Amino acid sequence: MDKLWAPWRIKYLKTTLKKGCVFCRSLKSRNQDTLLLKTRYSFCLLNTFPYNNGHLLVLPRRHTADIADLKDEEALDLFRTLSKARKILDKVLRPEGYNLGINISKSAGAGITGHLHIHLVPRWHGDTNFMPVVFNTKVISQSLRGLKKKFKKYAQ
């Protein structure tokens, strides 16, 4: 197996191993480097392990694992936050398309099963190349800090 040196991930990995939900901790943390939007019932984070540049996660504030458990006002707010996050991506990164994903349960592919989250992944024609196919490695060309700076003026 090839190894990719990524020492900046150790801080995140150490906090992920703590007890409790990583998403709930992100929302309550003083260090809100990845927090992009926060509303009454939902919030949006920059994904720390993105599939593509600009990959965001949109979540209900209430810790719940299933979309069926959301109250009407929570579901509406969640999708309004998703829409606002997409508009920010449109303005800042100008993607040509999007992948949206909700994985409910480990069997469906959820890496974190206890807190419902929607993946919002911006896509561009040709954004896949030989790296994932040949080397099983994805290259993300922008830092989270740099990306958050660009998003900040639209996230008010």
Describe what this molecule looks like in 3D.
The protein is an alpha+beta fold and 156 residues long. The chain has one domain: HIT-like (HIT family, subunit A), CATH 3.30.428.10. 32% of the residues lie in helices and 16% in strands. The protein has helices spanning 10-16, 22-28, 72-92, 130-135, 144-152; strands at residues 35-38, 42-46, 56-60, 97-101, 118-123. It has a 5-stranded antiparallel beta sheet, sandwiched between helices. β1 (35-38) and β2 form a beta hairpin. It is globular and about 40 Å long.
**First-last Cα distance:** 43 Å
Look at the helices and sheets and give the structural class. Answer: alpha+beta
Our estimate of the beta-strand percent is: 15-25%
The whole-angstrom Rg is: 16 Å
- Characterize the main sheet: 5 strands, antiparallel
CATH superfamily: HIT-like
Low-confidence stretches: none
Overall, the morphology is globular
- SSE series: HHEEEHEEHH
- Per CATH, the architecture is 2-Layer Sandwich
Strands ordered across the widest β-sheet: 1-2-3-5-4
Number of domains: 1
Average predicted local confidence, pLDDT: 84
Helical fraction equals: 25-40%
Q: How do the strands and helices of this protein lay out in sequence?
A:
Blueprint (H helix, E strand, L loop, with lengths): L9 H7 L5 H7 L6 E4 L3 E5 L9 E5 L11 H21 L4 E5 L16 E6 L6 H6 L8 H9 L4
Antiparallel strand pairs: 1-2, 2-3, 3-5, 4-5
Give a short overview.
The protein has 5 helices and 5 strands; from the N terminus they run ααβββαββαα. It has 156 residues and is an alpha+beta fold. The protein has a 5-stranded antiparallel beta sheet with strand order 1-2-3-5-4, sandwiched between helices.
